[in-house]
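#struct-help
A.M.: can someone run this one for me? Single chain, 391 residues.
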Amino acid sequence: MEEGYGMENTGLRGVTAATTRICLVDGEKGQLFYHGYSIEDLALKATYEEVAFLLIHHRLPNKEELDQFTRTLAERRALPGMLLDIMRNYPKSAWTMDILQSAVAVMGDLILYKEQGTKELDLQQGTSIIAKMPTLVAAWYRLKNNLPLIEPDPKLSHAASFLHMLTGTAPDPKLARVFDAAMILHAEHSFNASTFTARVIASTGADIFSAVSGAIGSLSGNLHGGANQKVMKNLMEIRELDRVEPWVREKLDEGERIAGIGHAVYKTMDPRARIIQGMLDKLPRKGGKWLEMSRRIAEVAHDELLERKGRPFYPNIDLYSGALYYSLSIPPVLFTPVFAVARTAGWVAHFLEEKYPEPPVKPVLYRPKAKYVGAYCGDTGCEFKNCKKRG
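D.P.: on it. Structure tokens below:
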């Protein structure tokens, strides 16, 4: 490997790839907005259905529109028998994210037809994907664990229906509302890796099923999704509050990163983390010892990293969402799939914006430039015996 190889790999950080009206992330101030609405107002005052409508239609719905959109999502939750038959034939050892990616990829052929058509058709297909994602996750979890499937209940909200299908028990309305707010917090976050993946696929003219499937594949990578599951694993490893400080120091001494601490964009506390902290405080058991331990991890990591690196590191949403999901009886193995369930609305919104931009913006195929640093035939060390340029 040549010296300096990879030094140009910036991950497109600092590069503006496109314009968007969907989401603003202000990393310096620790602020997040969906179409100009602050995440605090949306999480505390709106429902996931309202936010999904906002993201894909660029405005909040009126009462009639919200009622219709809510009914549409409820009516489209059920999975067709053919898809369930395919899922039953998957090995039980399969990872849920792989199942989601595969199921969404074939969903168009089984349900809606993968027609290349109008924005309205893609909007309807995207709405159906949003509706079916919770059912896919819950159904696979129950199939994998040899449990009877629970049909989606059209009388329940998007969030409550998922908890019901997963556990088999209708959730307490207060807990369902907490989960609903958590889904709003995860619904969108500008050009993160999975969303950018969806936009790149949209730029090729591919269908929305391919774009969402690709986004799920991107989210499955451990550098993007899975941090809250790692947080929960860490909490279970630490076990007790008084073990947090030595555990954090030991991990930092070993050069390890602490899951849930620091963020690629936020230079202060992730606003979503602050909201989830408050939500945990309102749970019947206030998140139990998991919340206390998460807070202590944030405190110790902040002080230790400030001393070691000369700058503060703040908690992100993953540090507290793990404790929240666990308190809602969601198993850690489903934390990343639940992320996907919530983020689908954002993926659909970005697909539509990329494929059907508002004038004067025009669709464009993504084709970034790369700097080649490998060998070529002009090198004096060419290994091809019959190379005409050799010597």
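A.M.: thanks! Residues 1-6 have pLDDT under 50 and may be disordered.
D.P.: also worth noting: The domain at 228-326 is CATH 1.10.230.10 (Cytochrome p450-Terp; domain 2).
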